[in-house]
């Protein structure tokens, strides 16, 4: 036994320095790429991993006197309270419904715009169109909310001013929860479509022009080229973006909802209250850190399960297009 073990240990000792030397050499050869990745690694390390011990707040009844680690441990009491009050189901439904609308309508509209841009023949008109559609992405949600308020306000909003001048009754927009899903979705699409279409347009630019020219020579019209060449080419990009989007299906767009609706308009809670606005109220109005942390933990776990499940389904249907 001794005669077999000693040569093996000697061989491992000889290999170890060479392996370490090769690793440092590979590190040095890729130093530029690693340096470029460093800001992203630091960002996620500081803002995603270092705060993770704070999840312990979800399992305690936090108070300022005892602090985080001395407050009473209540296990899943915070989660049980959310389920019993019915808030969790309403928040989950609203958040998922809005995100599914954003994902489905957003991606299809972005693909549609990218294809239209690709079909334009005048380069100057294509550039002007891209610029005009891209501009809303740079408008702050604060400005968007201000514009919406000046249009929809009951007393001085542009909409009601026009209705009054026509002899019609003014609309109480900020007390009618049923019209806000349309307003929120339209606003989101208006602001994000131009920016999102860039990814699909870039993917179309990677399409081999000889394939398109061959289809034109064979007599394929524009609709046929789009259906049989462009759309299949965009399929992998669409699947990857869809999987990334599903990871945040339970993460609402707080800036959009807060600036359009606000976090304290109780008459609109039934259709506009999402997880982010609930957490904001828990922290800023009720100072309930434990409840806000419980909802955030539920949000993260649910999103993780959705991504794993969606990736598994994609892998079954099209293994080449899955994330892992």
Q: Can you lay out the helices and strands and say which pair or pack?
A:
Blueprint: H1 2-29, H2 31-49, H3 77-85, H4 87-119, H5 123-134, H6 141-152, H7 158-165, H8 180-205, H9 209-217, H10 222-246, H11 254-260, H12 269-272, H13 275-284, H14 289-317
Helix pairs in contact: 4-8, 4-10, 5-8, 6-11, 8-10, 10-14, 13-14
Notes on the protein architecture:
The structure is a single chain. This protein has 324 residues and is an all-alpha fold. The protein has helices at residues 2-29, 31-49, 77-85, 87-119, 123-134, 141-152, 158-165, 180-205, 209-217, 222-246, 254-260, 269-272, 275-284, 289-317. It is globular, with a radius of gyration of 27 Å. The two termini are 43 Å apart. The mean pLDDT is 83.
Mean pLDDT: 83
Number of helices: 14
What overall geometry do the principal axes of the alpha carbons give?
globular
Q: What is the SS-derived class?
A: mainly alpha
- Strand tally is 0
Low-confidence stretches: none
State the separation between the terminal residues, measured CA to CA.
43 Å
The succession of helices and strands, N to C, reads: HHHHHHHHHHHHHH
């Amino acid at each position: 036994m001794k005669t077999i073990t000693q040569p093996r240990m000697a061989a491992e000792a000889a290999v170890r320095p060479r392996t370490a030397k090769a690793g440092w050499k590979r590190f040095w050869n890729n130093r530029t790429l690693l340096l470029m990745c460093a800001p992203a690694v630091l960002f996620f390390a500081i803002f995603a991993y270092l705060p993770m011990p704070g999840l312990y707040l979800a399992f305690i009844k936090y108070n300022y006197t005892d602090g985080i680690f001395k407050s009473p441990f209540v296990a899943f009491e915070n989660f049980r309270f959310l389920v019993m009050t019915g808030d969790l189901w309403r928040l989950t439904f609203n958040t998922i419904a809005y995100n599914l609308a954003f994902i489905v309508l957003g991606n299809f509209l972005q693909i549609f715009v990218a294809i239209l841009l690709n079909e334009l023949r005048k380069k100057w008109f294509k550039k002007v169109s891209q610029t005009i559609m891209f501009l809303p992405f740079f408008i702050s949600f604060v400005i968007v909310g201000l514009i919406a308020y000046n249009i929809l306000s009951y007393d001085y909003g542009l909409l009601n001013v026009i209705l009054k001048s026509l002899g019609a009754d003014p609309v109480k927009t900020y007390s009618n929860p049923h019209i806000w899903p349309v307003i929120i979705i339209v606003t989101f699409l208006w602001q994000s479509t131009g920016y999102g279409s860039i990814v699909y347009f870039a993917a179309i630019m990677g399409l081999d022009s000889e394939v398109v020219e061959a289809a034109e020579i064979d007599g394929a019209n524009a609709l046929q080229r789009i259906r049989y060449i462009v759309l299949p080419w965009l399929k992998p990009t669409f699947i990857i973006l869809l999987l990334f989007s599903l990871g945040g299906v339970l993460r609402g767009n707080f800036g959009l909802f807060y600036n359009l609706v606000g976090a304290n308009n109780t008459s609109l809670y039934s259709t506009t209250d999402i997880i982010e606005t609930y957490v904001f109220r828990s922290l800023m109005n009720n100072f309930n850190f434990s409840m806000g942390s419980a909802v955030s933990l539920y949000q993260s776990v649910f999103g993780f399960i959705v991504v794993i499940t969606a990736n598994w389904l994609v892998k079954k249907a099209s293994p080449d297009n899955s994330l892992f």
